[in-house]
Amino acid sequence: MTQLTRSQVAQMVDHTLLKPEATHEDVRELVADGERLGVFSVCVSPSMLPLSTTVAVAVVCGFPSGKHTSAVKAAEAAESVRLGAAEVDMVIDVGAAVAGDFEAVERDIAAVREATRGALLKVIIESAALTDEQIVGTCQAAEAAGGDFVKTSSGFHPSGGASAHAVRLMRETVGDRLGVKASGGIRTAEAAREMIEAGASRLGLSGTEAVLDGFPA
């Protein structure tokens, strides 16, 4: 794989702050840092919208449990898009995936897709909580429902965050038709490189600068 530069990796990053105790001042600092670092987007909670920034704005939906009704998720996502979000990262009903009810997973995603026409939709599957078979079924449901990306993790699930194995399996399932976002626990350049080599086209990072410092200028 060709050696990626710092700026190339930065353009794959969703610079993220989703802590419940985050303040509007914290988010202003996130935005300033994101612009300085040259990231692709900043990813925040819906209550932090609207934002004034030169980078893309991503927002989470049904976060972090995914156990909201589809109607609530759709309304939340629609409001976020109205307030300027260009991308929506939604959490599926992980229990439906564990139960093998991929039709329910697809319906859930489709409801949010319908509410977010014109925005990019990333589908958080909580890969660490799923078997390989469940990961494949969920990725197929996300594609069938019109998702643009599948994403490993919320970063809040006790089962863990991203793994290279999950990223590789997700990429094999969606091919080049969808993006794959690795997020959760990626704190070093080595970890980021491993995810990219496994097939990630986007990275969700909170410690972005430390990761980017490990890549050549």
TrEMBL record:
Reaction it catalyzes: 2-deoxy-D-ribose 5-phosphate = D-glyceraldehyde 3-phosphate + acetaldehyde
**GO CC aspect terms:** cytoplasm
Q: Which InterPro entries match?
A: Aldolase_TIM, DeoC, DeoC/FbaB/LacD_aldolase, DeoC_typeI
Superkingdom of the source species: Bacteria
Q: Active-site positions, per UniProt?
A: 89 (proton donor/acceptor), 151 (schiff-base intermediate with acetaldehyde), 181 (proton donor/acceptor)
Tell me the GO molecular function terms.
deoxyribose-phosphate aldolase activity
Does this UniProt record's set of keywords contain Lyase? yes
According to its UniProt record, where is this protein located?
Answer: Cytoplasm
- Which EC number applies? 4.1.2.4
Q: Which Pfam families match?
A: DeoC
Task: Name the keywords, alphabetized.
Answer: Cytoplasm, Lyase, Schiff base
Q: Which GO terms describe its biological process?
A: 2-deoxyribose 1-phosphate catabolic process; carbohydrate catabolic process; deoxyribonucleotide catabolic process
- What pathway does the annotation place this protein in? Carbohydrate degradation; 2-deoxy-D-ribose 1-phosphate degradation; D-glyceraldehyde 3-phosphate and acetaldehyde from 2-deoxy-alpha-D-ribose 1-phosphate: step 2/2
Q: Which family does it belong to?
A: Belongs to the DeoC/FbaB aldolase family. DeoC type 1 subfamily.
Role summary:
Catalyzes a reversible aldol reaction between acetaldehyde and D-glyceraldehyde 3-phosphate to generate 2-deoxy-D-ribose 5-phosphate.
Name of the protein described by the UniProt record: Deoxyribose-phosphate aldolase
Q: What is the lineage of its organism?
A: Bacteria, Bacillati, Actinomycetota, Actinomycetes, Micrococcales
